[in-house]
């Protein structure tokens, strides 16, 4: 089954073709992502109306480009998958409208994919031997969640952020220190030149039981440290390093607790913050010590992309699931409400 995947949940237009007849990563026939970073930079954040308009401008050309790179035409498609939520409602409607129209015109099934399920399943796209059960850390600009994965489509929320997501905290902290948009990657790059331990910030909510997160207080600590500092480049780098270490340590501590609680030694990490170098190193060290494994998608598939939507959609389409003909999106959508694709393993 050849499935076209369309991702338009926020400020990146992603398109991909996944072929289930090809094993593992070979099934990804082609994919492309157009980022709106330059468009939103002057506003210091995503402007929803501008994001929707740019998806309208770029989506059809990107579909043509991706199909050409895959050596396919629309007539070769067996299904269409699109991000139905969560996300910005206008942006979601652009992708859903185009996807439903294509499916209707080609007389093929379409499926609305949960954005975070797409992220969660991205590591499986590249490693066909990776199977549930496992624990997943979904960590991005909009989400920070620990999820128990009993089977594909069977998810249990173990813990989540009570305020800012980790990626959001990265972006906001970078902005308050005067780093350019998008701030998260800039802060992580700056942290590489900082001195470890020069600034020591708290590891929020690690001094009590539970798997929930909170990063707003950490952001306030950085604000106070920056306000009272000499504001030199060296100090900015040291604060960035202290902040990054605090976030990485907090995520790692909670991941260890989740693995212990689930009686599992396989951790899957997905989402934009999953590309963070220090987080990867920390979690690999923990997995090695436990005798387990941690799985990440390649960095290009950590951020929003059409490949994860095509893959997740293909799994559900092959299971006989599909959406109706209406254009329907869900800006807020609980992943635990998704129907199962596979039965849970004993």
From TrEMBL:
<keyword id="KW-0963">Cytoplasm</keyword>
<keyword id="KW-0479">Metal-binding</keyword>
<dbReference type="GO" id="GO:0061711">
    <property type="term" value="F:tRNA N(6)-L-threonylcarbamoyladenine synthase activity"/>
</dbReference>
<dbReference type="InterPro" id="IPR043129">
    <property type="entry name" value="ATPase_NBD"/>
</dbReference>
<keyword id="KW-0808">Transferase</keyword>
<keyword id="KW-0819">tRNA processing</keyword>
<feature type="binding site">
    <location>
        <position position="304"/>
    </location>
    <ligand>
        <name>Fe cation</name>
    </ligand>
</feature>
<dbReference type="Pfam" id="PF00814">
    <property type="entry name" value="TsaD"/>
</dbReference>
<dbReference type="InterPro" id="IPR022450">
    <property type="entry name" value="TsaD"/>
</dbReference>
<keyword id="KW-0012">Acyltransferase</keyword>
<feature type="binding site">
    <location>
        <position position="184"/>
    </location>
    <ligand>
        <name>substrate</name>
    </ligand>
</feature>
<feature type="binding site">
    <location>
        <position position="119"/>
    </location>
    <ligand>
        <name>Fe cation</name>
    </ligand>
</feature>
<dbReference type="InterPro" id="IPR017860">
    <property type="entry name" value="Peptidase_M22_CS"/>
</dbReference>
<feature type="binding site">
    <location>
        <begin position="138"/>
        <end position="142"/>
    </location>
    <ligand>
        <name>substrate</name>
    </ligand>
</feature>
<feature type="binding site">
    <location>
        <position position="276"/>
    </location>
    <ligand>
        <name>substrate</name>
    </ligand>
</feature>
<comment type="function">
    <text>Required for the formation of a threonylcarbamoyl group on adenosine at position 37 (t(6)A37) in tRNAs that read codons beginning with adenine. Is involved in the transfer of the threonylcarbamoyl moiety of threonylcarbamoyl-AMP (TC-AMP) to the N6 group of A37, together with TsaE and TsaB. TsaD likely plays a direct catalytic role in this reaction.</text>
</comment>
<feature type="binding site">
    <location>
        <position position="171"/>
    </location>
    <ligand>
        <name>substrate</name>
    </ligand>
</feature>
<comment type="similarity">
    <text>Belongs to the KAE1 / TsaD family.</text>
</comment>
<feature type="domain" description="Gcp-like">
    <location>
        <begin position="28"/>
        <end position="311"/>
    </location>
</feature>
<protein>
    <recommendedName>
        <fullName>tRNA N6-adenosine threonylcarbamoyltransferase</fullName>
        <ecNumber>2.3.1.234</ecNumber>
    </recommendedName>
</protein>
<keyword id="KW-0408">Iron</keyword>
<feature type="binding site">
    <location>
        <position position="115"/>
    </location>
    <ligand>
        <name>Fe cation</name>
    </ligand>
</feature>
<dbReference type="InterPro" id="IPR017861">
    <property type="entry name" value="KAE1/TsaD"/>
</dbReference>
<dbReference type="GO" id="GO:0005506">
    <property type="term" value="F:iron ion binding"/>
</dbReference>
<dbReference type="GO" id="GO:0005737">
    <property type="term" value="C:cytoplasm"/>
</dbReference>
<dbReference type="GO" id="GO:0002949">
    <property type="term" value="P:tRNA threonylcarbamoyladenosine modification"/>
</dbReference>
<dbReference type="InterPro" id="IPR000905">
    <property type="entry name" value="Gcp-like_dom"/>
</dbReference>
């Amino acid at each position: 089954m050849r499935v076209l995947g369309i991702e338009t949940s926020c400020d990146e237009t992603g398109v991909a073709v996944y072929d289930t007849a090809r094993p593992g990563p070979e099934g990804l026939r082609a994919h492309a992502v157009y980022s709106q970073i330059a468009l939103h930079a002057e506003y210091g954040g995503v402007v929803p109306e501008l994001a929707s308009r740019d998806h309208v401008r770029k989506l059809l050309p990107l579909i043509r480009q991706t199909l050409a790179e895959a050596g396919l035409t629309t007539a070769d498609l067996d299904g269409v998958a699109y991000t139905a939520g969560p996300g910005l409602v206008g942006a979601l409607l652009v992708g859903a409208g185009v996807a439903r129209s294509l499916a209707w015109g080609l007389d093929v099934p379409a499926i609305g994919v949960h954005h975070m399920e797409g992220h969660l399943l991205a590591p499986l796209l590249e490693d066909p031997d990776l199977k549930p059960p496992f624990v997943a850390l979904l960590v991005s600009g909009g989400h920070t969640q620990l999820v128990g994965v009993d089977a594909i489509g069977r998810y249990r929320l173990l813990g989540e952020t009570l305020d800012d997501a980790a990626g959001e905290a990265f972006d906001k902290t970078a902005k308050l220190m005067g780093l350019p948009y998008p701030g998260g990657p800039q802060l992580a790059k700056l942290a590489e030149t900082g001195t470890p331990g020069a600034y020591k910030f708290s590891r929020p909510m690690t001094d009590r039981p539970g798997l929930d997160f909170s990063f707003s207080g950490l952001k306030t600590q950085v604000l106070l440290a920056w306000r009272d500092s000499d504001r030199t480049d060296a100090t900015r780098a040291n604060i960035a390093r202290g902040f990054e270490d605090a976030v990485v340590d907090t995520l790692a501590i909670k991941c260890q607790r989740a693995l212990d609680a689930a009686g599992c030694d396989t951790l899957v990490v997905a989402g934009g913050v999953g590309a963070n170098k220090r987080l990867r190193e920390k979690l690999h060290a923990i997995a090695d010590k436990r005798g387990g494994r941690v799985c990440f998608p390649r960095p290009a598939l950590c951020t929003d992309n059409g490949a994860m939507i095509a893959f997740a959609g293909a799994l559900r389409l092959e299971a006989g699931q599909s959406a109706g003909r209406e254009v329907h999106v869900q800006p807020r959508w609980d992943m635990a409400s998704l129907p199962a694709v596979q039965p849970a393993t004993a």
